[in-house]
Amino acid sequence: MKPTSIIRCSIVRLAKLAGLMALCFVATAGEVKPAPGYQHYLVGNPADVVRPTSGLWVLQGGGDDVDENYVRMGAHGGGGDFVVLRASQAGEYNQYIYDLCKCDSVETIVFDDRVAASDPYVIQTIRNAEALFIAGGDQDRYVRFWRGTPVQDAINFVAAKPAPIGGTSAGMAVLGEFVYSAMYESLTSAVALADPYAHDVTLERGFLSLPRLTGILTDQHLQERDRIGRTVTLLARLMQDDWSSQPRAIAADRETALHIDPKNGTAEVFATATHPTPFVYFLRPTQPPERCEPGQPLTFRDVEVYRIGPGGRFDLAAWQGSGGISY
User: Fold this and answer.
1) Suppose 166 and one of 18, 47, 58, 124 were both cysteines; which one would form an S-S bond, judging by CB atoms 3.0 to 4.6 Å apart?
2) Are 150 and 123 in contact (CB under 8 A)?
3) Residues contacting residue 300 through CB under 8 Å, at least 6 positions apart
4) Alpha-carbon distances, residue 216 vs 109, 163, 251 (angstroms)
């Protein structure tokens, strides 16, 4: 072989080797690169299973999780596939829930942006869920990332099976028909009461469709963050803006959960063993606000409140409770 042929052959071999190395690099990178717009973490069986389910809505006011949430959601989900949705952090929930729910698997999907809300894997994973839980964080991300997307439709699909759906803190905030969307700074009672049309008073409606939560606003961390004034202001805005003539609110303390049977609207309270004063509050205005105007302090009288703790019950259909106090 001529020297020039040897050189040419060597160049071709080097080019082929470089191409193979590039292919190997691309394959390796493809294996570790997260899917566009989201990450997902799985514990248990990766294959889809189909189990019989029944409805249960779980509303927790934030803080340390109530174990009974996942025990009962797992039971109502038939021990099938449990899916956690969130827009921050990672898969910390997986093993904790897996140990409690006795499920086939627990998978967490963490959304980075709105792009993931149209991803086929994400949508199919949600629709296949026998139980679904929305974690805490910032509810504005859930509204911005999911509003008007296939994820919104997929969550409503799971609710309609019916299968258990729950949420804590920001996850609880998006379960009612009316949602404090927290698009700017987190609204305080002082700001809300001083001006019910302040920049931070932001509301959404019709985000999800959970039976028995129609006409209801949800709020969280009530005592801990002194949010009763915020909740009352949001109710006033719903009436003043003609979103509802008879709005109601369910507000929960941290480490406190309300479990609702969507078939008949009965609800009961559970809490962690360490919380000294765990309560859920049911609020209903009896008349429109006297003054609810931009730049003016709110005047809103005669809002009925019923408060129950663990062991107490509430009938959402009749809007009556037992085992608690009214004021």
Assistant:
1) 58
2) yes
3) 232, 233, 235, 236, 285, 289, 290, 292
4) 27, 20, 10
